[in-house]
Amino acid sequence: MLWLFPEPQTQNPAAVCYNAAMRRAFLLIGCLALSLLAMASPSRAETVYLKSGSKLTGKIVEQNDDAIKLEVAVEGGGSAVITIKRARIDRIEEADSFDERLAAAQRRLDANFFDDAERGFRELVREDSRHARARMGLARALYGNKKLTEALRILDHYMVLKPTGRDPQLLLLAAEYRMYNGDWREARDFAREAAALEPLNTELRDQSAALVKRIERFRDGTEAAEKKAAEQRAELEKRASERAQFDRTTGSNYDACEAAAELSTWMRQGDSSLVSAIKITLTASDKAESYFARGGNAEEYRKAVEMVTAVVIVNESSWLRVFDHVKQQHIYGFYYQLKQRYPKTTPVVTFVKRDADERGRTKQTDLARGSWDGKRGRLVVDSWTPANPDRARQSGLKNGKR
Q: Percent helix, strand, coil in the chain (nearest 5)?
């Protein structure tokens, strides 16, 4: 067995002095190694949570009963020591490692929590201003918060701090954001510089080439036009899907159902018990109907409608109690609202009642109708129920009162 500090085997004074000197040398070297190891091992930081809601991460270098001194990283490099009164401190916790906080900030960014991600990445950039992933994360969070100019500034600061040995993915991101800002030449330069950093990296070279092409297409408006066309196609598909689903008992198509719903709401504002159902039937050319069903513009379709019929199902007893002039107001209201919606038409509005006959089948009886008389140039109202004039109103009209 090899002994580190062998016992002296002789009583020779010179040998004894030699072995004692060796022991002291070995002890000195061991203490020095332990000191270096302690200096090399990274100390874990603390997070100081303030009562105001903010927090600071750093290393406590001095503390007493009244305050602490916290060494914090400064954006751009270096550190600063700040004094914090204990009265302002809510609690102090051992901070997560840099990589753990980086992963947490990235998760918040992926979930589109841009404010939280921005705070997390900004703290990391203050600790290590040359860390490419932290810089990229902060830039993406800023861009998500509609702060493109500040995102560019964060990336540009990295270029100043690292004139060489730059991260190629950060350069590609800088190129993309320069493209959004309209800086076409700088965007191309950054994309090409990224590829030049690793000339043997095929994937990186392809990314750079694709981005350069995209920059050219973005500059001449091709990408914007394609994006707009894609959005329009998606909107058409969405509208077509919606219009395929409609209640055929209230309208002949989706727009007719919408018209019926609006008229029903209007009627209920005046008399909630009179109308039980409304059905609108529209007639247009096959081309117009097909255009609308595929998701075409609703206003253009309404201009192409050639005929409108509205059947308003009412409670007969309620209808008979309504004064004649109010019945006319209802018919006029239906007619002119439909006329405004479908300007090419002369709508026909019919108020009806529905009953079941002795066989249980539905029987429909017309009560009143409003239609346009082309010869007389006015809306004519026909009624097939007993008259119900408002005597007091008629008397007032005869006396010149309104």
A: 55, 20, 25
Q: Alpha-carbon distance 61 to 79, whole Å? A: 12
* Alpha-carbon gap, residue 92 to 237, rounded angstroms: 55
**48 with 82: CB under 8 angstroms?**
no
Tell me 65's DSSP state.
Answer: S
Q: Do 26 and 5 touch, CB atoms closer than 8 A?
A: yes
pLDDT in tens, 26-84: 555 655 554 444 443 344 578 888 888 877 888 888 888 888 888 887 765 677 888 99
Architecture, CATH, for domain 100-223: Alpha Horseshoe (1.25)
25 Cβ partners below 8 Å, 6+ apart? none
Give the chain's radius of gyration (CA, Å).
Answer: 41
How many separate helices (H) and strands (E) can be counted in the chain?
15, 10
Per CATH, the number for 46-94 is: 2.30.30
* Count of CB atoms situated within 10 Å of the CB of 91: 10
Would you tell me how many other CB atoms lie within 10 Å of the CB of residue 22? 13
Contact (Cβ atoms closer than 8 angstroms) between residue 141 and residue 117: yes
pLDDT of 5 above 50: no
DSSP label of 361 = -
What are the two backbone dihedrals, phi and then psi, of residue 268, each rounded to the nearest 5 degrees?
-70, -20
Beta strands 348-356 and 307-314: pairing type? parallel
Q: How far apart are CA 37 and CA 31, in angstroms?
A: 10
**Domain range annotation of the chain:** 46-94, 100-223, 247-398
Instruction: Answer whether 0.85 is exceeded by the pTM.
Output: no
